[in-house]
Amino acid sequence: QVQLVESGGGLVQHGGSLRLSCAASGAIFSISAMGWYRQAPGKQRELVATVPSGGSTNYADSVKDRFTISRDNAKNTVYLQMNSLKPEDTAVYYCNAVVATRPTTRIYTYWGQGTQVTVSS
Questions:
Q1: What's the distance, CA 108 to chain centroid?
Q2: How far apart are CA 89 and CA 81, in angstroms?
Q3: What is the DSSP track for 88-109?
Q4: 8-state DSSP, 75
Q5: CB atoms within 10 A of CB 102
Q6: Rounded to 5 degrees, what angle do the CA atoms 92, 45, 111 make?
Q7: Within 10 Å of residue 50's Cβ, how many Cβ atoms?
Q8: Per residue of the chain (121 residues), what is the pLDDT tens digit?
């Protein structure tokens, strides 16, 4: 089994910053893509940003130039630096990882439990 544990959410004022972290642990052989998604009340879950094991990052248009995704492969951890936060960024943020698991190297997608980000106006 693989677990993803998120941290770093909270309440911040409009224009503020937060940094989310998500650490993967367990029966990991390797991790390809990692990413962040979010779900606001009454809305569908949407992609925020993804980062592959190699290659370029990908961002939703709504967060480009404000959010930065990065990963530390040695720690199996993905980060989301969020700057210039807006009230419309308020949502539960979920991390996601595509993992080749031990011992079979079968590939599964895992989700974290979610962390609340609230931006006040």
A1: 17
A2: 13
A3: GG-EEEEEEEEEEETTT--EEE
A4: G
A5: 13
A6: 70
A7: 19
A8: 999 999 999 999 999 999 999 999 999 999 999 999 999 999 999 999 999 988 689 999 999 999 999 999 999 999 999 999 999 999 999 999 999 999 999 999 999 999 999 999 9
